[in-house]
Specification:
This protein is mainly α. The protein has 2 domains: 103 residues, no CATH class; 84 residues, no CATH class. It has 8 helices and 6 strands; from the N terminus they run E-E-E-E-E-E-H-H-H-H-H-H-H-H. A hairpin with a 6-residue loop joins strand 3 and strand 4. Helix 2 packs across helix 5. The longest helix has 36 residues. The mean pLDDT is 95.
Length: 214
């Protein structure tokens, strides 16, 4: 997922200057966009550790997911580049619990570290629970309009209830792997696509929700 900002939008002043005319105009409704594909030439990629952390368009747990690869790419496989991070980036790495204990304890006390950890496990579980609830509502809407039958949803629930529970409790990837027939996973040839109730549109909508689009 990439974080894009409308070119010409200044978040510090909350103003928009049209880059074509140089005139200050009303701020468009979507100065920020999160997407896996570029929204066009009028937006710029601003994905970074700090920008993702400070972005308020997604919940904390979801933002943490997108910060993770950026953080580890910055510090290197053995944290050899950790010293090159800004102090804010170091704090974010600690708050997200990406940094090891020996580095976190340089930022705060052991007691504060316990509190940070409690926040991580609380917020990440809250994100997963919100994700599952959004999926449930999506399926319920499909039942309402008749694109899914009650029998299909019952079969879906029976086959995925354990995987969804694992996801909620511990962020296990089984449900996503099953839903997408992820290559290399145990569900590559034994997932949703192999069921009698497989619907491409439902798969795509649930994957979108899983990725934070709800």
């Amino acid at each position: 997922m990439i974080l894009y900002k409308l070119i010409g939008y200044n978040p510090a002043t909350d103003t928009y200057t049209n880059p074509n005319t140089g005139q200050v105009e009303n701020i468009p409704s979507d100065p920020y966009i999160t997407s896996t594909v570029s929204p066009g030439a009028t937006y710029e990629d601003i994905s970074s550790i700090t920008n993702w952390y400070n972005y308020d368009g997604l919940d904390w747990g979801r933002r943490r997911t997108y910060i993770k690869p950026l953080f580890y790419a910055s510090v290197g496989p053995n944290f050899q580049n950790y010293a090159n991070l800004t102090q804010e980036e170091k704090l974010i790495g600690g708050l997200c619990f990406f940094s090891p204990y020996a580095l976190r304890i340089q930022l705060w006390s052991d007691e504060e570290d316990k509190q940070v950890w409690m926040n991580v496990i609380t917020e990440t579980k809250r994100t997963r629970m919100r994700t599952v609830e959004a999926m449930r509502k999506n399926i319920a809407e499909d039942i309402r309009v008749g694109t899914l039958t009650l029998l299909q949803t019952q079969m879906f629930d029976k086959d995925t209830s354990d995987m969804i529970a694992w996801y909620e409790r511990s962020d296990a990837r089984d449900f996503y792997q099953w839903l997408t027939n992820e290559v290399g996973s145990p569900y590559e040839n034994d997932g949703y696509a192999q069921t009698s109730y497989y619907i491409v549109a439902l798969r795509d909508s649930l994957v979108s929700i899983y990725n934070g689009n709800f």
